[in-house]
Specification:
heterodimer; A: alpha/beta; abc type-2 transporter like fold; 2 domains; five-stranded mixed beta sheet; B: alpha/beta; Rossmann fold; six-stranded mixed beta sheet
Chain lengths: ~375, ~250
């Protein structure tokens, strides 16, 4: 047929799809506000400023230096001394109960060692079960000690206290700005995979899909018509998330906005293809929703490096993470946003996502056809 | 005389199971053809092949003058289809559903609005043009779905149990709509489980175990089986099969 007719058929279908989306106000509002809510909630939940740090002091033999340093911690305002004990073992219960966040462990005879010019040491023990605040607390404590040292007459002559830091409970550390790129991945997965899967499987369940397939529309037109409105929605979500991150938290944006939007579109297309695939292989809306949840949302949250660093996963999970699209998107988004890198450094991730899109879409169209039989 | 549907030894196998076994059916243009059969006799499989949802394993079928296997798109443009499940969108208005199907079948905006107005007027739904379809009573919905399936003036319309769950008065009105469509030259291919409806058909066939066990006008079939009603004919044909397969 006549190209214009085919185009107008596709347009009629897209219009219908948009009407579905616009008519379901509640879902629409949730989808539009979701990125905002997520960025704000996550942002405040993993805020970098740490106040009211509960400090345990381990001071076996108090002397002039240890007392001076202790006074510095008290006077700093961020620290609150919750215990002063003679041994590390005595500080241990405070950590286990979660009553202390950090312990300063002084060496016996600290003043004497400093005076003699022999190496003086002290230890910082940090509860790093929340890695982000762990790092921050460590930085604050180190800076208190450094500030004191800088004021001493011997400063600069090489006689100094060297703090040894031990992060407890979680030795790997994630930086805090990393969450925004991950959230974009999460929102895009939700809108593209899950919403497409639900909306397409609804048509299947209600029997309207059959009527569409009997019409002159071709399978690809049905898929494109389904996907285009959600692509627009996904695009709006990325913009909202970026805006919220910038406006509320001043998350840096060092690279090209166009590149990030392009990559987001590519990632959304992979998600949409997955959504179509899920709808093709499931027979009910409910199954499609659960499938999308377990098959896309869960891996995006847990295996993509969004929350848990991939490097610290056991080998099998590390291997599985390679087939999670979000893993590659997050590398792109973090690279563009936080490091300002360009296509030259990200071509591999972009190529992998493109390949995934082609593969999933081919599979989707094929199983879509096969399912008719 | 032209044939709207010409089916020759059409067969569909699923593995070793023969769902449709070399059936041959000819339907004339403007005819109301009843396609009967017990559940599982192969009716749905046969219809799916005729409307292009399923590839035939063997045999040939021409619908509206085109081969369903090789000219599927030409066929699909010339047929209408109303499935046994409701085929309109509940969350769209009457007008929006009409716009959708008109658009899909390549009608112009003018055609959509004039035919849409006619359609709504014909159903006495004038006040409900902008009502959500989901708020209409079932009988109205079914009549609306049938009218929408005819919106692009198809040569052949396939109705798969169109009156399931509908009250007797609405069923009667529905059949009046079917006759009106046939009078305008549209060929109607309809499946039903209501044997009183079967009596309304110009001709009908009864499928048993993937084969066509009987075909003719209602009067011919009743005479052939010496039965007073089509219901009786149907039960006689379908029962041996059910007893052989069922127990």
């Amino acid at each position: 047929m006549h190209r214009e007719k085919r185009l107008s058929a596709l347009i009629a279908f897209v219009v219908k799809e948009m009407r579905h989306i616009l008519r379901d106000r509640q879902t629409l509002v949730i989808l539009l506000l979701l990125p905002l809510a997520q960025v704000v909630l996550f942002g405040f939940a993993i805020r970098t400023d740490v106040n009211d740090i509960r400090l345990a002091v381990v001071d076996p033999v108090p002397d002039a230096v240890t007392l001076a340093l202790r006074a510095r911690f008290v006077g700093n305002g961020r620290f609150r001394v919750v215990a002063t004990v003679p041994t590390v073992a005595a500080a241990e219960p405070f950590f286990r109960r979660g009553a202390a966040d950090i312990a300063v462990v002084f060496q016996p005879g600290l003043a004497e060692r400093l005076a003699r010019g022999t190496g003086a040491q002290m230890q910082l023990l940090v509860d790093a079960s929340d890695p982000n605040s762990g790092t921050t607390m460590q930085t604050y404590a180190t800076s208190v000690i450094a500030a004191w040292q800088a004021e001493q007459p011997g400063a600069g002559r090489g006689v100094r206290i060297i703090p040894q830091v031990r992060m407890r409970y979680n030795p790997t550390l994630e930086s805090v700005n990393l969450f925004v790129p991950g959230l974009i991945a999460l929102v895009l997965t939700l809108v593209s995979s899950m919403m497409t899967a639900i909306s397409l499987s609804r048509e299947k369940e209600r029997g309207t899909l059959e009527v569409l397939l009997v019409s002159p529309l071709r399978p690809w037109q049905i898929i494109v018509g389904k996907v285009v409105p959600y692509l627009l929605l996904a695009f709006a979500n990325v913009v909202t998330a970026l805006f919220a991150a910038w406006a509320v938290f001043q998350v840096p944006f060092r690279g090209s906005v166009a590149l990030l939007l392009g990559a987001s579109t590519l990632y959304a297309m992979v998600g949409l293809a997955l959504g179509v695939l899920i709808a093709a292989v499931t027979t009910s809306q409910r199954a499609a929703m659960l499938f999308a949840l377990v098959g896309t949302m869960l891996p995006t949250t847990l295996l993509s490096g969004l929350i848990f660093p991939i490097a610290s996963m056991p080998l099998p999970l590390r291997l599985i993470s390679h087939i999670i699209p979000a893993r590659w998107f997050i590398v792109i988004a973090r690279g563009v946003m936080l490091k300002g890198v360009g296509v030259a450094d990200l071509w591999m991730e972009i190529a992998i996502l493109s390949l995934m899109f082609v593969a999933f879409m081919t599979l989707a169209i094929r199983s879509f056809r096969a399912r008719l039989d | 005389m032209t044939l709207a549907i010409d089916v020759q030894r059409l067969t569909r196998r699923f593995g070793a199971f023969v769902a449709v076994d070399a059936i041959s059916v000819q339907v004339k243009t403007g005819e109301v053809f009843g396609f009967l059969g017990a559940n599982g006799a192969g009716k749905t499989t046969a219809i799916k092949m005729l409307i292009g949802l399923l590839e035939p394993t063997e045999g040939s079928a021409q619908v509206a003058g085109y081969d369903v296997r090789t000219q599927s798109e030409e066929v699909r443009r010339r047929i209408g289809y109303m499935s046994q499940r409701f085929s309109l969108y509940d969350d769209l208005t009457v007008r929006e559903n009409i716009q959708l199907y008109g658009g899909i079948y390549g009608l112009t905006d003018d055609e959509i609005s004039t035919r849409g107005a006619e359609l709504v007027g014909g159903l006495h739904l004038d006040g409900a043009h902008d009502a959500l379809v989901g708020t209409l009573p079932l009988g109205w919905k079914q009549k609306l779905a049938f009218s929408v399936a005819l919106l692009h003036r198809p040569l052949v319309v396939f109705l798969d149990e169109p009156t399931g769950g509908v009250d007797p008065v609405t069923r009667r009105q529905f059949w009046e709509m079917i006759y009106a469509a046939a009078a305008r030259g549209t060929t109607v291919f309809v499946t039903t489980h209501y044997m009183d409806e079967a009596e309304y058909c110009d001709r009908l066939s009864i499928m048993v175990d993937g084969r066509i066990a009987a075909m003719g006008t209602p009067a011919e079939l009743k005479a052939e089986f010496g039965a007073p009603t089509i219901d009786e004919v149907f039960v006689r044909l379908a029962r041996p099969a059910a007893m052989a397969g069922g127990v």
